[in-house]
Amino acid sequence: QVGRTGGAARRAAVASAPVDDEIVVRIDSLTKRFGSGSVALTALDEVSFDVRRGEVVALLGLSGSGKSTLLQHIDGLQTPSAGGGTVLGTNLATAGRAELRALRRRIGFVFQQFHLIGRLTVLENVCTGALGSLRGPRLGLFSYPRAIRERALDHLERVGLADWAFQRADTLSGGQQQRVGVARALMQEPTILLADEPVASLDPESSGQIMRLLREVADQNQLTVLCSLHQVDLALSWADRIVGLREGRVVMDVPTKGIGRDAVMRLYARVGAGPV
Ligand code: ADP
Ligand code: MG
Hints:
By secondary structure, the chain is α/β, with parallel strands linked by helices. It has helices at residues 7-16, 67-74, 97-105, 122-127, 146-158, 174-186, 204-221, 232-238, 261-268, and strands spanning 23-34, 41-52, 56-60, 82-87, 90-91, 107-110, 192-196, 224-229, 241-246, 249-255. Magnesium ion is lined by residues 67-68, 196. Residues 25-272 form the ABC transporter domain. This is Phosphonate transport system ATP-binding protein.
């Protein structure tokens, strides 16, 4: 059974925010090679899958299986070697730099190591998430337009950290810093949120809280989330679908609803991990 911690809440949330039929990410025979000749390495090998609006997809795979490379393609940061796909209408294989930059503005990114500026306040860190839509560099909280500061505070409230707005970011725990990372990613009002191992540096409790938060922000905004991680149980609790990668190939692509944990575990063996 998939009914695990948060499972009931998740199902309720999913019921209130049905997944749209619109396909926002279509990855189509995407191949990425690094290097050439004897040092050539195929990081992604004819990867294909679709993601619909509002879906939360967990990307599972061992280190080196291609998760980060795949997320970077969706973010328009890498160019396919062959094949490609479409993200929010942008063709990954043919788009020019300006189009990719425009795509990136509609995509939020959450990092494993948070990447906050430790000496700045929490609120100012969240404000930096709006830099893509502002001109020029910013120095100090009050160099941001008031509307931006207010929106940043709203997002902090949403992730439960409004009381920490004026603390230095480096005084927060890892779990709190990642919440700030999510608030910052929301500042550009993204359509897609990519999270590259957002819980890999966190303890189990904080990990669950961050996954719950990603689920909540997805449901509240019809936001589409792709999140790489290693814990199959977190994927089962909080994602709609699991896509498993092994050596750059998709080896599983299953919904988490209506499929037993045992069946998922049998499929998960395909990614090459030991018993969980
Ligand atoms: P994961 O995120 O699942 O750990 P990655 O996408 O980081 O996997 O890496 C997939 C493979 O591609 C690995 O073998 C990695 O060494 C290689 N790779 C990733 N980025 C580069 C790069 N910029 N140059 C050369 N090889 C790379
Ligand atoms: Mg990675």
